Amino acid sequence: MSERAPSISGRLVRSSLRYLREREGAATVAQIAAQFPQHAFLHSARVDDGWIPLGAWLEVLAAFEARVGDPPTLRLLREMTRATMAAAVSTVWGTFLASATPDQLMARVGDFWSVSFDTGTLTVAERAHGRARLVVDGWRDPPPQVGAMVAEACAVFLARVGVGAPRVGDRVVNGRLEIDRAW
Length: 183
Description:
It is a single chain. The protein is of the alpha+beta class. Helix content is 48%, strand content 19%. It has helices at 10-24, 26-34, 54-68, 75-90, 94-97, 102-107, 109-114, 144-160, and strands spanning 7-9, 51-53, 121-128, 131-137, 167-173, 176-182. It has a four-stranded antiparallel β-sheet with strand order 3-4-6-5. A two-stranded antiparallel sheet has the order 1-2. β3 (121-128) and β4 (131-137) form a beta hairpin. The longest helix is centred in the C-terminal third of the chain and has 17 residues, at 144-160.
């Protein structure tokens, strides 16, 4: 039995493409999309809310990162994630976050994960005052782009609940993605 390939939320991809159009212009997005005729999500009028194969999205991201970002640091992906998460926080998650605390955010990490990725689960592995370590279980060796997206999203969420200058880092340890958060 073969393992199913991981997917990413179409809504997240749609928000990311919107950001790229605003930042780089429609012509740049069209040029990069032309490199990937096999990826229908790049050529439709509106990206579906369903799931998009993560591998396909990572190919597209790599092309954008190479053209206007910094592949070793994933600078474009990190900027884009902060911007799209800030938009989501002000709309979709705004009501919940209006009175949320960091502890309440940690209680919902699985919910935040499940609306973005269809593989693995995000859980709190360790908690201490002003610090938490999150881990992704059920997905061995996720790509570094996933860690970057989750780390940046965590920073946005923490900043939204009033944590000044949250520090968030990501790494894969023994095949398991870990996100360290301090506030």
